[in-house]
Amino acid sequence: MTKPRVLVLRALGLGDLLTAVPALRALRRHLPGHEIVLAAPERLTEPAAATGLVDHLLPASAPGRAVPAELAWDGPPPDLAVDLHGNGPQSHLLLQRLRPRRLFAYAHPQLPGISGPVWQADEHERERWCRLLAWYGIDADPAELRIPPPTTHSPALGAIVVHPGADAAARRWPEERFAAVARELHRGGHEVVVTAGGGEEALARFVAAEAGLPSAAVLGGAGDVPFDQLAALVARARCVVVGDTGLAHLATALGTPSVVLFGPVAPRLWGPPAEPRHRALWHPGTDVSARPGDAHGRRPDERLLRITVDEVVEAVRGLPEPETDPSYERGRAAQGPLPLPENS
Q: Starting from the edge strand earliest in sequence, which strands make up the sheet with 258-261, in order?
């Protein structure tokens, strides 16, 4: 007999997927006999599988954070459709066209037929989607955000990972400052690697060169680092230094200590949990609203620029040691050191 299917719409980025993990976990627990299908960009196939909460990815994407024009859904209508993409109405209508037996979504004045909860703009993403499910009677805990550790060996066990890139300039701390942080940590005896997404190779190589790191310390750039390698690197890192990007959420999901730099958007909306292993740096000044700046702006946000190199270095030094993975460490010791991969 074919399993009933749940279609979850979240056609966004890596960080968006990882902030939805608590909600996906709640759906999996509440509907163990259902197949969970995630409508998301095809590049998230591996990350979605790595959560252990998604059975199948239905490729779906649109420019920026827009709603896909259509979904290539086949077969009978979903038993349940869940809108984790936004507050509608476009995302709601996209799912309604599939004629699901049930639809979970936030209420919207243009769609009076959906009697969901009221959207709250000033709410953390993890809490937002758990509250949606709770309104429909599904227990969901925003703290259940962890994903299983990867089995792949890390290319730089115990290194500090510096990730200078971001989708928008408003959330991109100056490259000279990232280089200064990497240089100071390297001089202090830490192994430092610089990661880069596709198209960020020049940025990463500048940071590595200015920091006095070998060229092999740059991972990615010409293309994204393969997700299994990236997850293994982050999971077994000393810590991650990063802006408000997907890699910050990956560190959170894997329990890796992190220092995350915020500017136009407050950490209370997208930041890591308030735990000693994570430090969210933010200097809002007199404007303490949730979104004092433009997250997609073309120049570094003034709040981001208030964060200093010394502040970041001290935050790194104050982090606790990362959690240990004894089974991994035994296998790693048996294998011996792994060289950093060369970039072509």
A: 218-220, 192-196, 160-163, 239-243, 258-261, 278-281
CATH class as words, domain 5-135 = alpha beta
Distance CA 178, CA 161 (A): 11
pLDDT for 276 equals 96
pLDDT at 325: 57
3-state secondary structure of 15: helix
Give the integer Cα–Cα distance in Å for 260 and 57. 29
Which pTM value belongs to this model? 0.92
Residue 129 near residue 22, CB atoms below 8 Å = yes
Tokens 């990972």 label which residue? 161
Band the pLDDT of 221: cuts 50, 70, 90. Answer: confident
Q: Is 50 exposed, middle or buried (0-12, 13-18, 19+ CB in 10 A)?
A: buried
List strand residue ranges (DSSP E) for the chain, in order.
5-9, 35-40, 56-59, 80-83, 102-104, 160-163, 192-196, 218-220, 239-243, 258-261, 278-281
Residue 37, Cβ neighbours under 10 Å: how many?
20
**Would you kindly state where each structural domain of the chain is located, as residue ranges?**
5-135, 160-335
Query: What is the architecture, at CATH level 2, of domain 160-335?
Result: 3-Layer(aba) Sandwich (3.40)
Residue 43 is given by DSSP the state G
